[in-house]
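Q&A log
Question type: sequence-to-structure
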Amino acid sequence: MASKSKKTNGRVYLVGAGPGEPGLMTLRGRDLIAQADCLVYDALVAPAMLAWTKPDCEKIYVGKRAGNHALPQEEMNALLADCAGKYTCTVRLKGGDPYVFGRGGEEAEYLHAAGIPFEVVPGITSAIAGPAYAGIPVTHRSCCSQFTVFTGHEGAGKQPCALDIKGIAAAQGTKVMLMGMSRLRATMEALMAAGQAGEVPAAAVQWAATGRQKKVIATVASLADAAEAAGVGAPAVVVIGEVVNLAEKLDWRARLPLAGRRIVVTRTREQAGELSAALSALGADVMELPTIRIADPTDRRDFAEAVVDSPHYDWLIFSSPNGVQRFFRAFFAVYEDIRELGGARIAAVGPATAAELKKYGLMVDVMPQKAVAEELVAEFDRKADDFGGVANVTMLWVHSEQGRDVIYKELMKRQAIVDECIAYNTVPETEDPTGAGARLAQEGADVITFTSSSTVRNFMALNIPLPKDCRIASIGPVTTATLREFGLAPHVEAREYTIPGLVQAVQSLFA
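Response status: OK
Response body:
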């Protein structure tokens, strides 16, 4: 893995982020993001990709979007050179493909002239992926065997015009325009004046390959009016050609169960991925608004000492996947072999925590099907005959600083000897690099999901008014009880207190 360096020996990677869906990122691109010491990213980069970085990666937002460039290209080039002098691995993450109207060629030329080593990692261009996600193949044997891609950024409304309008109008097959919504009407009129038939089918696909995707289908002559009426604007891909007629049959994304639904995920940035991916796969427009983040416990010395002493306990009890991760990160800083844990039995609060333990080769002896503390205690009672009960048995309970004390109190009542290992702290998330809070306040949402009491409390602390008609989904009874403390009644509660259970609950709202 790359590390920070004071020497000017860094390499810059120009990486294509693809059209919007994180799953369309190349494996090479994702690996580099995970290694990056510095990530320089655009506005059209999926927020989920930021969670792939390591904790100490510096993230620099350069916010390029049509008509609103946060950083001029000359300053961008200088920034990349500066980053190369500070970091071993700098990733310049660009929407789509770096060399398809992404000015990646200019950045590569600059780096070459400056003697800075670089590598280009292609991305899936929205010129192909955008139409595909709207049910429009850019080629089809029955009607089209070629396609032309051009940029509307240099379109007909600009003087002098850098486009070969006559050549584009005369071209056979499909025509795809990127970055042209601000000049859509002028470009369509110029193409028709140059010979393009106005009755040819045309479509505009906004926010292609994301949950925000929206499309309008018309003709070359009527597309500008149709786009205005439907509220379809930038960023969008425009497609001209007979292949547009296939959209009604081939638009697979519009048939997904959560298509067009905007759903807010309030989990930590690092943990949001599982829930976000599951909702996105069902077509949802996922808005990640982390309200908490995982931090070190207040007393790190006590935590370290508890981990060192852990091999001496009869039982280890884990309340959450976060506790498992933090515990074993510290454990392997001291011990080299998992067998040094000794013969302790393992208990976990729910399947998700058990799944995290399995990553370390550990199976659980006690686990309730419902992930709540009361159920774990009840499970100990039900299985008491299997291991002789808990009286006079030493137990180390690994949990968060804000964890409820149900496990401690109830097991102590049963004469167990319980010590606490506070592995982490949940604190309010203060960063919002993607502007999700402002977007929620402005655009609203269909559902807000809550996965813990802390996500509820910290969301309420943001003082963002709940959008009109927005529904609330809770992962389980403990989270629901916290919602009720704030006068909120969830519209649905997961039957299984897990992320898959919460996803099913959200789906049930729109069945």
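Response note: The mean pLDDT is 90.
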